[in-house]
């Protein structure tokens, strides 16, 4: 087995993940990026989205919201405002949040309110990523 | 000498009070555990955050960001963080006193002062001074990161629009369960040296690849840094509040015990005096019949 990466996902509520993993894929500023062992030192902001990591053949997903990540010396640290595992996600609530956000987004667009619009967009992003994570969790 | 019945009622009353203070003590102890846990959970986040900030600020040229810009100080904004509730000894009073002194000092230097109050105690204390620009009350019980973000954004907005040239935080720092002291901290403009100095050893390990550019990352990180600061102050205050209340209520309970003790003494003395007087009466009556 190749070298491993130490992944840490830290939120204001404490560390969510602290594991040795093989590969991590995360929603970075410029789009998704993947990190393998021996990556060059790297620092990027993180958008709301889905973080995936693999240990061997086992794949896990997390929903993360804004923050940043740092890679150095085979250590990968994510500092995000919140992170949720698939099992912790309330699908119904995420569904409702999605609908609400879509509605608000439409309203904001109609009124050209910039602040409301960014807020609604963020809410929609969060809801969508939650749903995505929850879906992958399901053994279909 | 108070009558027997009066003393008895008083003892009953003090007993009830001690029951209440004891219950409050236990509630505060339970809440303190929660608040301390929250603080500990946050510590690793804050440490990692500071490390990253240190790395970053050593790599970039400061001064290019409005949040770090030093201006001639005309207006100072003070963020006062206290608890929402009282009955926690001198905890809030100490914070407020420190703020008062600070205001007096700044005004003596000819600077204007505006206040942002977090917690009901500071909001009501400073209400009549007319200096309060913004108040955030009723959130010390169940605050989250987004509460801190709203406060930080408001303060940043005010700073960026030039309505304040410097922002400081006054809050109750949690040293231990027995010791909480008011503390003051510079908030804005953000000083990169302070951030970098704290984390100098953690830096190094070569050049980083930054995505997007350092400048753009900083633009995201600086507001986040403010959130972290505000959230941290709120966590400290909520832990301190419960610790202070625990001590205060413990003192109150033992004071109640003392009072009950001395009242019981008075009660027994009065009772005994009554019995003696009655006996004398009877003996006196019997003597007279002989």
The level-1 CATH class of the largest domain in chain A:
Mainly Beta
Q: What is the oligomer described by this structure?
A: heterodimer
Shape of chain A: globular
Just give the CATH class of chain B.
Alpha Beta
- Total DSSP helices of chain A: 2
Give the total of beta strands of chain A: 10
* Uncertain spans of chain B: 197-205
> What's the pLDDT, averaged over the residues of chain A?
84
Gap between N and C termini of chain B, in Å?
A: 34 Å
The amount of helix of chain B comes to 55-70%
**What is the helical fraction of chain A, as a range of percent?**
25-40%
Strand content of chain A: 35-45%
What distinguishing features does this structure have?
heterodimer; A: 140 residues; alpha+beta; Single alpha-helices involved in coiled-coils or other helix-helix interfaces; five-stranded mixed beta sheet; five-stranded antiparallel beta sheet; 43% strand; globular; B: 290 residues; alpha/beta; Pyruvate Kinase, Chain: A, domain 1; 6 helices
Describe this structure in words.
The complex is a heterodimer of chains A (140) and B (290). With 140 residues, chain A is an alpha+beta fold. Chain A has 2 domains: 5-86, Sandwich (ATP Synthase, domain 1); 89-137, Up-down Bundle (Single alpha-helices involved in coiled-coils or other helix-helix interfaces), CATH 1.20.5. Helix content of chain A is 32%, strand content 43%. Chain A has a 5-stranded mixed β-sheet with strand order 2-1-9-8-5, with no helix packed on it. In chain A, strands 4-3-6-7-10 form a 5-stranded antiparallel β-sheet, with helices on one face. In chain A, α1 (91-111) runs antiparallel to α2. Chain A is globular. The mean pLDDT of chain A is 84. Chain B has 290 residues and is an alpha/beta fold. In chain B, 62% of the residues lie in helices and 14% in strands. Chain B has 6 helices and 6 strands. In chain B, α3 links the parallel β2 and β3 (132-136). The longest helix of chain B is centred in the C-terminal third of the chain and has 76 residues, at 214-289. Residues 197-205 of chain B have low confidence and may be disordered. The A-B interface holds A 8, 10-15, 28-30, 33, 40-45, 66-68, 70, 72-73, 77, 79, 81-82 and B 38, 40-42, 44-45, 48-49, 52, 55-56, 145, 205-212, 216-217, 220-221, 224, 231.
């Amino acid at each position: 087995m190749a070298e491993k990466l130490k992944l840490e996902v830290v939120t204001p509520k404490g560390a969510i993940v602290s594991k040795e993993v093989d590969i991590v894929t995360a929603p970075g500023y410029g789009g998704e990026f993947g990190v393998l062992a021996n990556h060059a030192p790297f620092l990027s902001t993180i958008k709301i989205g889905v973080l995936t990591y693999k240990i061997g053949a086992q794949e896990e997903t997390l929903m993360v919201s804004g923050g940043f990540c740092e890679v150095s010396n085979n250590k990968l640290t994510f500092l995000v405002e919140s992170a949720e595992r698939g099992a912790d996600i309330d699908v119904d609530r995420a569904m409702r949040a999605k609908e609400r956000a879509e509605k608000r987004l439409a309203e904001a667009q109609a009124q050209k309110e910039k602040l409301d619009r960014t807020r609604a967009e963020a809410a929609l992003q969060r809801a969508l990523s939650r749903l995505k994570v929850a879906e992958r969790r399901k053994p279909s | 000498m108070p009558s027997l019945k009066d003393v008895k009622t008083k003892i009953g009353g003090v007993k009830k009070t001690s029951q209440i203070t004891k219950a409050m003590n236990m509630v505060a102890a339970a809440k303190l555990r929660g608040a301390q846990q929250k603080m500990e959970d946050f510590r690793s986040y804050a440490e990692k955050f500071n490390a990253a900030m240190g790395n970053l600020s050593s790599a970039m040229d400061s001064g290019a960001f409005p949040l770090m810009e030093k201006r001639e100080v005309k207006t100072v904004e003070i963020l006062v963080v206290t608890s929402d509730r009282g009955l926690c000894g001198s905890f809030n009073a100490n914070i407020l006193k420190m703020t008062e002194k600070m205001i007096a000092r700044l005004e003596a230097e000819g600077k204007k002062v505006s206040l942002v109050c977090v917690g009901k105690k500071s909001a009501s204390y400073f209400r009549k001074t007319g200096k309060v620009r913004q108040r955030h009350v009723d959130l010390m019980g169940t605050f989250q990161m987004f509460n801190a973000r709203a406060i930080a954004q408001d303060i940043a907005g005010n700073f960026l629009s030039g309505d304040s040239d410097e922002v400081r935080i006054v809050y109750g720092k949690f040293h231990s369960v027995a010791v909480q002291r008011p503390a003051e901290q510079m908030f804005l403009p953000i000083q990169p040296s302070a951030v970098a100095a704290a984390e100098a050893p953690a830096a190094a390990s070569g050049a980083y690849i930054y995505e997007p550019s350092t400048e753009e990352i900083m633009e995201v990180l600086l507001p986040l840094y403010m959130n972290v600061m505000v959230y941290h102050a709120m966590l400290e205050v909520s832990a301190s509040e419960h610790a202070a209340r625990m001590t205060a209520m413990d003192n109150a309970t033992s004071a109640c015990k003392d009072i009950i003790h001395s009242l019981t003494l008075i009660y027994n003395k009065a009772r005994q005096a009554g019995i003696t007087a009655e006996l004398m009466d009877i003996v006196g009556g019997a003597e007279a019949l002989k």
